[in-house]
Specification:
It contains twelve helices and 13 strands. With about 425 residues, it is an alpha/beta fold. The strands form three sheets. A seven-stranded mixed beta sheet has the order 2-8-7-6-5-3-4, with helices on both faces.
């Protein structure tokens, strides 16, 4: 844990009700992280030793601190008379502080939204008012960073260019080539890694090409933030959306949206009272204002103050800061590298292109996989996801080389 992480956690916990802060603080695992290369650390998440959970790109696991926070939250929700005015704001701001510390930005640049798709919708609503042009996205980009732009192409002047899957797996080269020197490019939608197979993209390089032609960069980094030592903020995106329920150890129904300060004066896509100036003290009378809370808070979704799930988010982000994304990436990449070596030795195709630090990989075989391969493997206590023609495998701290053997023992011959 760095001093910066310790300070960020302390700052966030100081915002909470003392009883919640104490509950989370006592349950956090503050011991130096020791990852076992052979067995992994399933104990950190309460995962049974017999089970190979290699499916973090689908859904993250929970920790002791999260379980404690969830128990506290459910008890509070069951007793609504315990909910105070401050509860509508404190956990929201604690999440904002922790997430901003994780990616390396100021908390005022972060909005709390219910999904990455909502965050991309905010970006679309703002960029729809700029000069129209081509929208460049990689083939097979996640739905959240695709459908919004396809909808935008219904307006005059907008069109979409889908960059084909490169034969050599070098998405960075393919994206930069598509951007070229085209002055008609308005938006580039790109992830740090492809969600179906973990193929890596060099976002700073793509960002440089994007800025060179005066376009805007919109990033869905759901499969990256929390599991990569390098934050997508290194690319200086215009917008960055990340769902919480995978690598952020967070709850379903929560995502974070980074909004570059140049857009902080833009109109949000919905209006409610809690993102307005002075909302914390306005409880007993109707009082309208045209002013918003500072920074990206105007883009917060309504009912962001989820009493049942925000303590989970706070505990998960705090634990993630303690363990660090760098440690998670190191463990994940070790397992990914072992899986890819074993796969190639057995004749499977694996994800092409740059693989340094990869936290996701995929196996492909001639003729594809049976549609029921996921449930079939689950019966043998091996959990993965089928995405297109890819058997997507996404390990974390709970996994070790033992799980690599379990995976290949369970695969059909």
């Amino acid at each position: 844990m760095t001093a910066t992480s310790a300070e960020t956690i302390a700052q966030a916990l100081a915002l909470l009700r003392p009883d919640l802060a104490t509950t989370i603080d006592k349950a956090l695992d503050r011991a130096p992280l020791e990852w076992n290369r052979e067995t992994g650390r399933p104990d950190l998440f309460g995962i049974p030793d017999r089970l190979a959970y290699l499916n973090w790109a689908h859904l993250g696991a929970t920790t002791a601190a999260i379980e404690a926070a969830n128990a506290w939250a459910m008890k509070r929700r069951a007793e609504p008379w315990r909910i105070e005015r401050r509860d509508y704001f404190d956990e929201v701001e604690a999440c904002r502080v922790l997430y901003a510390g994780l990616i390396g930005t100021d908390a005022s640049n972060i909005a709390l939204v219910p999904a990455a798709s909502y965050g991309i919708a905010v970006a679309k609503s703002i960029l729809a008012n700029t000069t129209p042009g081509r929208i460049v996205v990689p083939e097979g980009e996640h739905y959240s960073n695709f459908y919004a732009w396809r909808r935008l192409t219904a307006l005059p002047g907008w069109s979409m260019e889908i960059v084909p899957v490169p034969d050599d797996g070098d998405w960075t080269r393919a994206m930069i080539a598509a951007i070229g020197d085209g002055k008609d490019i308005a938006i580039v939608g790109a992830p740090p890694c492809h969600w179906t197979d973990g193929a890596r993209l060099d976002l700073p390089a793509i960002a440089a090409a994007t800025r060179k032609v005066g376009a805007k960069l919109v990033v869905d980094a759901t499969q990256n933030v929390g599991a990569d030592a390098v934050s997508p903020m290194a690319a200086d995106p215009d917008f960055l959306a990340v769902s919480a329920y995978k690598w952020l150890l967070g709850p379903y129904g929560l995502a974070f949206l980074y909004v570059h300060p140049r857009y902080h004066a833009a109109a949000p896509i919905e209006e409610h009272s809690y993102h307005r100036a002075g909302a914390t003290g306005r409880a007993t009378k109707v009082e309208y204002t045209d002013d918003y809370a500072p920074g990206a808070r105007r883009f917060d979704a309504g009912q962001r103050s989820n009493f049942a799930t925000l303590p989970h988010a706070v505990a998960g982000l705090a634990q993630l800061l303690l363990w660090t994304p760098a440690a998670i990436q190191s463990a994940s990449h070790s397992v990914v590298a072992a899986i890819e070596a074993a796969a190639q030795a057995r004749g499977y195709a694996t994800t092409k292109g740059p693989r340094a630090g990869a936290n996701i990989t995929a196996l492909r075989r001639e003729g594809g996989w049976p549609a029921d391969i996921g449930p079939t493997l689950a019966k043998r206590d091996v959990h993965i996801s089928l995405r297109g023609d890819s058997l997507r495998i996404s390990p974390s701290l709970n996994n070790g080389l033992r799980d690599v053997g379990r995976l290949f023992d369970a695969l059909p011959r």
